[in-house]
Specification:
Blueprint: H1 2-72, H2 105-112, E1 119-120, E2 150-154, E3 157-161, E4 167-175, E5 181-183, E6 189-190, E7 195-202, E8 206-214, E9 217-223, E10 234-235, E11 241-243, E12 251-252, E13 258-267, H3 277-283, H4 297-307, E14 311-315, H5 325-333, E15 346-350, E16 357-366
C-alpha cells in the first residue's frame, strides 16, 4: 500500500527529469545558431558604423577632387578651354579686355596707407602693357547641364561641380631671402617685414572686384582702379592676375599687428551700384590721386554675406615651391595657364551653376 501511494510522486519526478534533459538537448542544439546570429548582428552594426565613418572621412576628399577637376576642365589643353589670351580693349561700358593690373603701390597706398596694411616694397608702377586690342567676348551663358560635371557628396547630399560653376583659385607667395617667390600657407601668421603677393585665377570670364578692410573696418575698393586700364575690371578665364600685378613688386607688412582682409568678388555681370570703367573715372576725376571708393552699407553687407555662403573647396597641402617660369610668363604676357602649370593653392567653387557671383575672403594676419 505504501509503495502504491508513492507511485504518483515517482512518476512526476521521472517526468520532470526527462523534460529537463530534453530541454538541455534542445538548447545545446540551437546555441551555435543563436551565437552565430548574435555575431552576425554585431558584425552588421560594426560594418554600418565603419561605412558611416568611411563616408564621413571620404566626403572632404571627394569634394576636393571634384572641385579641382571641374575647375581645370576649362584650362587650355583640357578640350573645353579656348583661346584665353587676355585682351585689353577698353570701352566706357567696361566691356573691354583684361585689366593691365589688379593693383599697384599707389592704388594700394591711397586706400590703406594710414592703416597697418601691407604696402608695396617698390615705387614702380605695376601696370602691364596690353597684349592686344581685341574686345573680350561676354561670358558664356550658363547651361543646365555639363558633361564635365564632377559629383561630390556633402552632408549626405550629392553636389555636382561642373565647369559652368564659377570658381576662383588663389595662391599666396612670400618673398624668400634670395628674392624668389615661394608658395606659403595662406593661413599662416606673418611678421613685420614679410613681403607677399597673391595670384588669382578664375575659371570663367567675368568681372573682378577686390575690396580691403583692416580689422573689419572701413571697407574700400582696391580694384578696379580708375588709373589702371581706365577702370576696366574685365578678366579672362585661367589668365592669372597678381596682386600687385608686376612680378617684381610686393606688399610689405608693417610693425602694427592687424587682420587684413581681401574680399575678391568674381561676377558674371557688373555689380549694381559699383562704378567701373568710365563711371569710376568720372567719380575720381576730381581727385584721382586719392580716390578711394567705399561701398554702401547694404552692398557691403551683401558682399560679406556672399563670402560666407557655402562653397566647394579644394586645398593643396604642399607649400614651399618656387613660382615657375610658366606662371611668371602667363602673368607678364596675359595668357591662359595650361594644364601642366601648377594649380592654385586653394580653389573655391559655387555649389550651384546658376549662381551669378562668387565672393572669397582672404585673411592676412600679421603680428
Amino acid at each position: 500500500m505504501r509503495l502504491k501511494s508513492l507511485a504518483p510522486v515517482i512518476t512526476v519526478a521521472i517526468t520532470v527529469v526527462i523534460t529537463f534533459i530534453i530541454t538541455l538537448s534542445v538548447c545545446d542544439a540551437f546555441r551555435p545558431t543563436v551565437i552565430a546570429v548574435s555575431h552576425s548582428m554585431a558584425a552588421r552594426d560594426r560594418r554600418g558604423e565603419t561605412t558611416a565613418r568611411e563616408r564621413q572621412d571620404a566626403a572632404p576628399q571627394d569634394e576636393d577632387v571634384s572641385v579641382r577637376g571641374a575647375f581645370f576642365a576649362t584650362r587650355p589643353g583640357s578640350g573645353k578651354g579656348g583661346n584665353n589670351r587676355a585682351s585689353a580693349g577698353t570701352t566706357a561700358s567696361g566691356e573691354g579686355g583684361a585689366p593691365e593690373a589688379v593693383t599697384n603701390k599707389a592704388a594700394r597706398n591711397k586706400a590703406i596707407s594710414k592703416s597697418g596694411a601691407p604696402k608695396s616694397s617698390t615705387n614702380k608702377s605695376v601696370g602691364r602693357k596690353p597684349t592686344n586690342t581685341a574686345t573680350a567676348k561676354k561670358p558664356a551663358a550658363t547651361t543646365a547641364s555639363d558633361k564635365t560635371a564632377k559629383v561630390a557628396v556633402a552632408n549626405g547630399k550629392k553636389i555636382s561641380y561642373g565647369s559652368v560653376n564659377l570658381g576662383l583659385g588663389y595662391t599666396l607667395y612670400m618673398r624668400a631671402a634670395n628674392g624668389d617667390a615661394v608658395r606659403v600657407d595662406p593661413d599662416r601668421e606673418f611678421s613685420a617685414g614679410d613681403q607677399i603677393r597673391i595670384a588669382l585665377e578664375t575659371n570663367a570670364d567675368g568681372f573682378l572686384y577686390i575690396f580691403h578692410t583692416e580689422n573689419d573696418l572701413n571697407p574700400q575698393m582696391l580694384f578696379p582702379d580708375a588709373r589702371l586700364n581706365g577702370g576696366v575690371n574685365r578678366v579672362r578665364a585661367h589668365v592669372p592676375y597678381q596682386v600687385p600685378a608686376n612680378t617684381t613688386d610686393w606688399f610689405k607688412f608693417d610693425a602694427r599687428p592687424a587682420v587684413e582682409r581681401l574680399y575678391v568678388v568674381l561676377a558674371r555681370e557688373p555689380l549694381s551700384g559699383v562704378p567701373i570703367a568710365g563711371a569710376l573715372v568720372s567719380h575720381c576725376a576730381g581727385n584721382p590721386a586719392s580716390c578711394a571708393w567705399q561701398p554702401a552699407t547694404q552692398l557691403w553687407a551683401q558682399v560679406t554675406a556672399d563670402a560666407s555662403a557655402p562653397v566647394g573647396v579644394s586645398r593643396d597641402k604642399e607649400y614651399g615651391q618656387e613660382e615657375t617660369a610658366a606662371e611668371r610668363e602667363a602673368v607678364t604676357r596675359g595668357i591662359g595657364l595650361s594644364l601642366d602649370a601648377p594649380p592654385p593653392s586653394i580653389v573655391r567653387m559655387n555649389i550651384s551653376s546658376g549662381t551669378k557671383l562668387l565672393a572669397t575672403r582672404i585673411d592676412l594676419v600679421h603680428k
